[in-house]
Write a structure and sequence with these properties.
Layout (H helix, E strand, L loop, with lengths): L17 H8 L3 H10 L5 E2 L5 E2 L2 H15 L5 H45 L23
Antiparallel strand pairs: 1-2
Helix pairs in contact: 1-3
GO molecular function: DNA binding; DNA-binding transcription factor activity
Keywords: Coiled coil, DNA-binding, Stress response
Pfam families: MerR_1
Amino acid sequence: MTFPFPPGTDEDTPFFVISVAAQLSGLHAQTLRSYDRLGLVSPGRTSGGGRRYSMRDIVLLREVQRLSQEEGVNLAGIKRIIELENEVGALRARLAELTEELASALAAAEHAAASVHASLRRDLVPVRHETALVVWKPNRKR
C-alpha cells in the first residue's frame, strides 16, 4: 500500500487512531488492543495514552493476520517470528555499517601506503646482495 506521507513524516510516524488502523488492517479494534497487550505490535501513544499506529504497524498487523489465518501459526510463534525478523534487520544494518567501516579503513590504509611509497627517495643507489660461502676450519690444538 502506498501512502503519501506529509512532510517530515515517514512509515514509522504514528498518526492513525485505532479505528482507522483497524479498518486499514482488516482487523477489529479489540484485536489490535489484544495484539498490543501481547507485544505483537507496539503502537505509539499520545500524551493521554491513546494508541497511534504508523503505516509500518499497519503492515505488521496484516502480516500477523496472514501468518495466523493462512499459515496457521499461533500468536506465540508469530511473536517469535517478528522478534527474529527484527533481529535479522538489525544484524543486516550492523553488517552494512561494518562493511562501510571496513571499506573506509582499507581506503585509508591504501592511501597511507601510497603516501609512504611516494615519499621514498628515488636517488638512492641500489645495493647488490650477493651470497658468499665461507668455510671455516679451526686449527686443532694439540
